[in-house]
Description:
This protein has helices at residues 14-24, 31-37, 44-53, 66-73, 77-101, 134-143, 148-157, 161-167, 178-201, 220-235, 268-273, 275-280, 326-340, 342-358, 365-390; strands at residues 2-8, 27-30, 107-111, 126-131, 170-173, 242-245, 258-265, 291-292, 302-303, 305-307, 315-322. By secondary structure, it is an alpha/beta fold.
Amino acid sequence: MLRVGLTGGIGSGKSTVARRLVERGAVLVDSDVLAREVVAPGTEGLVEVAAAFGDGVLDASGALDRAALAAVVFGDPAALQRLNAIVHPRVRDRSTELIAAAPADAVVVQDIPLLVENGMAPLFPLVVVVHADAEERVRRLVRRGLPEADARARLAAQASDDARRAAADVWLDNSGDERDLDAAVDALWERRLVPFEVNLRERRAVSAGAPRLVGPDPDWPAAAERLRARVAAAVGERGRGVAHIGSTSVPGLPAKDVIDLQLGVESLADADAVRDDLQDAGFPWHPRIDHDNPRPAGSPVWPKRVHGSADPGRVVNLHIREIGSPGWRYALLFRDWLRADAAARAEYLAVKLTAAERYAEDPDADRYVEVKEPWFDAASRQADDWAATSAWVPSLD
């Protein structure tokens, strides 16, 4: 199944998006609903809340008075932490139960208001953020009966738009008509979520297709950062750092719209051990790719493992190499050399343009790569010379 994290600020229209996704066939796990469920009358959660905050947070019938509880915890970090320690584990356990009960081919949408605030984005193969301008959100909350001062305070207490945008694989703007939002959700469902789920279930990586260079995309660094965090979360302690490498890691360099990452491991046995974890996180394994061409040519091959992306909206090459190996070092050196040397960047771009033009209609990326091989052999010596004169040391950044 595909798990999608859905979030957005209060008043953004997140519930509208969730409703539309359910209409299209998604399984919804709503954290707000579960947060009410786990403190409903007769639950252990409600007993603990009353014990922690007193009977003043209960109404005349013995149910939770949410307004009274909000008045106690809002603006009091220690009180909010006590409340979260009661509610969050129960919501997490109930979410796990619901997800386990979903069909194997489901698109499970987890509606989590504080997904960004709680650092949960890397735990999902895809994160969707619903956005609306702050003033529009305030107007919506006031129409619901919330005093304007309270509405603005709620907005200020949540993550910033910049923080949400950094976490978003998909950014849905809900500042306009609801019909426009429904159309955007429908397109997301049909073009991305459904094929993503199929690719994920069938362990199939998307292809970049014929080589086509595009101008530098300002979103490449942010996309790479999201993917780095996702890979790191998937592999845990077996990983030894994830780096953004390749052409999209070099500012100002036109490139194919493909994010290349390098995961360092102590041994390729560790790479094999986390294979299924990476595949579950959205990175299918390429079983037929097991080495790099060495530099210089003719040396023994450089072993590695490679995973791709199941997400049709983002092509990824995830190279897994042993820390300190020639291939691991070269990937970082080549990136840093191009970043530092404008002449080298221009020369490499010329080679890329020639290769892309020659194979503009060829979906086989191997031929595009082969054209560049002679240049790589000569460039590797130049890069080594630059490393020696610049006192270069490998860095993940």
